[in-house]
Amino acid sequence: MTTKTESSLPTSIILVYKQWAKQIDRYKNMMTNLAYILEPVGIRVAMYDAFENFADEEMWKFPKFWSEPFLYILKDDINSRSPTLIADANPEPLDDHDATSEDDEVGHKWKDLPFTQSAILKSLKKLVPEVEHAWLTVKEKVQERRRIVAKEAEEARIKKEEEDKKAQEEAEKLDEYLTTIEKVDVSEEGEEGGAFKQTLEKGRDGETPSIGSQVYVHYTGKLLNGQVFDSSRERDEVFQFKLGTQSVIKCWDRAFRYMSAGEKAVLTCTPSYAYGETGSPPKIPPNATLRFEVELISFDGPEILRDEL
């Protein structure tokens, strides 16, 4: 009867993170790459959200305050289930942590654990015999993965160019069509030119919502080049808000007062009636004039405030 050695047991690397990490997408992409590279070696790659799930601070030896991810190696050994830290994305040294014997053995300290793919693979080579033995294969998988990522990036670039071109063409067609439709200035008095409404399809009756009404709308928001930055239609989710309470951009608070249920319109919102000098990163740039294709589905009457009774 033979007994498995520790090095022959399954090994995992685990990304422990919180949702608000500054470059969380980068770290997740790196883990996807590592999963591909390490698959022939039999190393499992996992991610664990320490905010949404319980994380034993004693087991993981977290510092008191942390926000950026850690990467651990965990060997499935009944005699030793303690994770070993192999990468740390936190910028400050973790002074309250004493280096483990594993850290000392590979020359690591918490303040010197770069969170890069190259550094992680080199650490695994030192810690996991299977990685060292298959190092040439690992290097080949690295190059293979780079080619795949480059191909995917090129395909994404071409797709975006095609989508941008199509959006621009549609925007130009809409611009031409809108020249034939009456443009109503719905800006506040003395602020003319801030917000405009052009009706595409009239509503069911002439009744319009008043300040305090709960309105239910569908919308597609676009930059002037036709690029869509948000759409309730794509989410298949009706958007609702209380009119005149500054819970939406000023353009909306003004324009929907002049719409009836069932009406479809295009709203053109200058920066002062939209997101101003700051924009709304990452999709809406500073000083952007926005265009919304909207539909007022329905609205409820305004609530009667207690002090009006």
Let me know the CATH homologous superfamily of the largest domain: Glutaredoxin
Structural domain count? 2
CATH architecture of the largest domain: 3-Layer(aba) Sandwich
Shape: elongated
In angstroms, what is the radius of gyration? 28 Å
Can you tell me the residue ranges where pLDDT is under 50 for at least 5 consecutive residues? 1-8, 93-111, 304-309
Q: Write down the oligomeric state.
A: single chain
CATH topology heading of the largest domain? Glutaredoxin
Note the main sheet. 7 strands, antiparallel
Q: CATH first level of the largest domain: which class?
A: Alpha Beta
Task: Kindly report how far apart the N and C termini lie.
Answer: 87 Å
Annotation, overall tally of beta strands = 11
Question: What is the count of DSSP helices, taking H or I runs of 4+ residues?
Answer: 8
Helix content: 25-40%
What does this structure look like?
It contains eight helices and eleven strands. Strands 5, 6, 7, 8, 9, 10 and 11 form a seven-stranded antiparallel β-sheet that branches. Strands 2-1-3-4 form a four-stranded mixed β-sheet, with helices on one face.
List the helices and strands and how they pair.
Blueprint: E1 11-17, H1 24-38, E2 44-49, H2 57-60, E3 70-75, E4 84-88, H3 101-105, H4 117-127, H5 129-133, H6 135-178, E5 184-185, E6 195-201, E7 214-223, E8 228-231, H7 232-235, E9 239-242, H8 250-255, E10 264-269, E11 290-300
Helix pairs in contact: 1-6
In short:
The chain is of the alpha+beta class. It has eight helices and eleven strands.
